[in-house]
Amino acid sequence: MRLRHVKMANNIIEASPYIVLDPFSYCSKWKELFGNDNPIHVEIGMGKGKFIIEKAINNPDINFIGIEKFDSVIVRALQKVNDKEIVNLKFIREDAFNVDKLFNKEVERIYLNFSDPWPKKRHEKRRLTSYSFLQKYDIIFKDKKYIHFKTDNRHLFEYSLISVTDYGYKIDSLSLDLHDDNLEDNVTTEYEEKFHKKGYPIYKMEISRN
Amino acid sequence: MRLRHVKMANNIIEASPYIVLDPFSYCSKWKELFGNDNPIHVEIGMGKGKFIIEKAINNPDINFIGIEKFDSVIVRALQKVNDKEIVNLKFIREDAFNVDKLFNKEVERIYLNFSDPWPKKRHEKRRLTSYSFLQKYDIIFKDKKYIHFKTDNRHLFEYSLISVTDYGYKIDSLSLDLHDDNLEDNVTTEYEEKFHKKGYPIYKMEISRN
User: Fold this and answer.
1) How does pLDDT run across B164-179, given as a tens digit for each residue?
2) Residue B203: its chain A contacts at CB < 8 A?
3) What was the ipTM of the complex prediction?
């Protein structure tokens, strides 16, 4: 984005009721923000927000929080909800790396959708299913740990399957061609729609750990 | 096969030096049969034998045993080796179900290639990666357990990944499109060649457990 656009995006973001501007101050206090004890589900790297917005609308008894680093895509998510009042949805503008400082045993499920594959070996730690991120998730999960992971990137999926099972997660369900399985309740992301139309398989796993 | 063919196949099989006609009598004594202490690798469901024959020729310091139930395919394997003398290769005509009565803490690696997927839920126990077969393998493995598994069947691979990790196996390596990975040391089966040419992905995992 050019400077003018950056400023505009920043103004839109800071004015939105969906954005939690000082999210670290809510660590251990997210139920106060939502005003209820409903489960909290977090999408790390929500992108343009289609997935988490649909999830929030369809599941009013769950609180959804989307984390996204880039203003340019957050504003696209805000455009989708500005004319709506979705009380169980919040967005955080933050780097995924700090997720363990945003929550303290408060999260019941994490969604990872089409995360950056970081293909180079030296960037392994940045992958959201690496050992170091799985350690961070242990801090934010309330009790039993549930992760739903989707990607079109074969190598990231192979890596992730090895990484999470090695860490102790059990695979509850698995699809190596999600859209061929006709799952009725699959909520898609923008990226997923585009990739599926090109005929590429979408990989998905749901995993859990006590 | 018609009766005449069945008889012919039976005659060919019983006359072959590669066939161990009374395999159960060698349980706990396979090293005596081979006359050495070399590791024993077993392929369960070897089909027409291309894979295990190539493996045996390329690895003279490992003893290979192929198990196959059907005479019609065993004779095809024998046709490939009748003019050769491969001292580290034996075939067993037996149902995989009895594998735990064929070996007693003697096997170092199991190969499962393009196993019957048994897609119906009520046939789950017949899948070679089911809980009941993994229990049988515990009996035949010498020490650390190594399984190499290849298939073109997506649902069998999904099932197997869940089953083996749930059982406690670690995934050492994984490919969701084996032939796209240009693995130099991949020894193919007849079935694999045919399927790969049709453009279908071949799935592979190498797993282990202490």
Assistant:
1) 999 999 999 999 999 8
2) 176
3) 0.90
